[in-house]
Amino acid sequence: MGLIRSGARRVRLPRTRRGRRLAYQAVVVLTVLALAPATWMNATGGPRVRTVADAPAAPVAVVFGAGLWNGEPSPYLAHRLDAAAALYTRGTVRAILVTGDNSTHDYDEPDAMRGYLVRHGVPARKIVGDYAGFDTWDSCSRARRIFGVKRAVLVSQGFHIRRALALCEAAGIDAYGVGVAATHDVTWAYGGVREIFAAGKAAADAALRPDPRFLGPREKGVAEALR
């Protein structure tokens, strides 16, 4: 039986043809299982990705948080907000739900997003903040269950938008997505790799539909913004 040294450990390889065939089949099965969530995510969300110019009309745009730099939206988040502002200016959406992390007093994504949108021409009364959008599932689930969103245009970078679409569909939202272009830098590469691993959690969330970390009472902010 063959041996492969790996430091102090030795990995034994199958010696017989049947053993090698079984090992190969096991590797294939594990690879398929590992890639299945990403395949589901792309099959579910891919056909609904649009641009600002051809996104179908919906009552609300949902913008997912993407980090702050010194209290202001990061470049990636700013690009998402620019797209949302353009959707509002074009009349594609009538209100914008900004969802992000406000887990500490010193870190407030939704208010930073709101301030950016106001500076770019969106009326404050048309912007609603979700301060407990700690991950994509929480944002989608709360958009439906807390804010009553049934149809929306989702806004995120291209590497994330398919996961957002798949999860919002699982949460009960009829959505299309705008995949915002991004510079192919280290952040973009990290985001792409992260999506491969995040797909497994997304598939579990879609199947199990857990409560978000914070649920709370229904809020009327979106309904009032649409009035």
TrEMBL record:
It comes from the Bacteria. One of its GO terms (cellular component) is plasma membrane. Residues 60-182 form the DUF218 domain. The chain crosses the membrane at residues 21-40. It holds the Pfam family DUF218. Keywords: Membrane, Transmembrane, Transmembrane helix. Coiled coil: none annotated. Signal peptide: none annotated. PANTHER family: INNER MEMBRANE PROTEIN, PROBABLE PERMEASE, INTEGRAL MEMBRANE PROTEIN. This is Membrane protein. It comes from Streptomyces natalensis ATCC 27448.
